[in-house]
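Sorry to interrupt, but I need a hand with the structure work. Can you supply me with one protein entry, sequence and fold together? No commentary is needed, just the two lines. Leave the record below and I will have a look.
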Amino acid sequence: VQLVESGGDLVQPGGSLRLSCAASGFDFSLNTMNWVRQVPGKGPEWVSEINGGGDITAYANSVKGRFTISRDNAKDTLYLHINNLQAEDTAVYYCVWGLAYWGQGTQVTVSS
């Protein structure tokens, strides 16, 4: 199993990003996927979830309305579209399958 995130960057408050996660080694289209973020020194925070078919999603209250999770099963890729970034969104964002499989993370930093 391999999960490789990309797309993190330094952005100004109010900016947007699209994070990607390329998955391999398992049947991606059959599995629910999650995004989790973590600030150094703090515990992980669940952000969003999407089912295998891509038609059922869920979001943490802290990101609802600003984040959109999606997937392209033909490309085995998970996405997280982030709008109106705020300083409190600064974290390492991880793509997660189940509880055991995490990518290496991609850093999102929001600062003026």
Q: What stands out?
A: The chain has no helices and eleven strands.
